[in-house]
């Protein structure tokens, strides 16, 4: 779910990114983020997200901005994209960034 490879922190939630996975993912990220040179989120296998998962994505993006680390996200499932749109948020998958 969370791996650090070649100074890139990869986050790939499986099936759901909800309150039930949020603490596990956040706990796994914290000790590794200081060693990362960039952060990459892959939501290709995630078809359900809730506000807890969404808040972690926003927090990760803001942390990357604060530390001047590149942040990218890819593979947003339509159901997740629709959920995020409810909050007026649009992750720009084509440019691998956030709008």
| Structural class by helix and strand composition | alpha/beta
Strands, total number: 8
Measured on Cα atoms, how large is the radius of gyration? 12 Å
Q: Low-confidence parts lasting 5 or more residues at pLDDT below 50?
A: 94-99
CATH topology: Transcription Regulator spoIIAA
Percentage of residues in helical conformation: 25-40%
CATH architecture: 2-Layer Sandwich
Q: What's the structural domain tally?
A: 1
Number of helical stretches of at least 4 residues:
3
Outline: globular
Distance between the termini: 25 Å
Record the strand order, biggest sheet.
1-2-4-6
Mean pLDDT across all amino acids: 87
Give helix and strand order, one letter per element, not per position.
EEEHEEHEHEE
**CATH class call:** Alpha Beta
Largest sheet report: 4 strands, mixed
Strand percentage lies at: 25-35%
State the CATH superfamily name: STAS domain
Structural account:
The protein is an alpha/beta fold and 99 residues long. The protein has one domain: STAS domain (Transcription Regulator spoIIAA, 2-Layer Sandwich), CATH 3.30.750. Helices cover 39% and strands 28% of the residues. It is built from 3 helices and 8 strands. It has helices spanning 19-33, 51-66, 78-85; strands spanning 2-5, 8-11, 15-17, 38-42, 46-49, 71-74, 91-92, 97-98. A 4-stranded mixed beta sheet has the order 1-2-4-6, covered by helices on one side. A hairpin with a 4-residue loop joins strand 7 (91-92) and strand 8 (97-98). Helix 1 packs parallel to helix 2 (51-66). The longest helix is centred in the middle third of the chain and has 16 residues, at 51-66. The radius of gyration is 12 Å and the shape is globular. The model is unreliable at 94-99 (pLDDT under 50).
